[in-house]
Amino acid sequence: MTQRLAGKIALITGASRGIGVAVAERYAQEGAHVILVARSVAGLEATDDRVKKVGGDATLVPMDLRDGDKIDQLGAAIAARFGKLDILVGNAGMLGELSPVPHIDPTVWGDVIATNLTANYRLIRSLDPLLRAAGHASAMFVTSGVTQGDFPFWGSYAASKAGLEALVNTYAAEVAHLGMGVYLVDPGIVRTEMREAAFPGEKPDTLPAPESITDIFVELAEHSERTSERRRCA
Question: Which domains does the chain possess?
Answer without folding.
Answer: 9-232 (3.40.50.720)
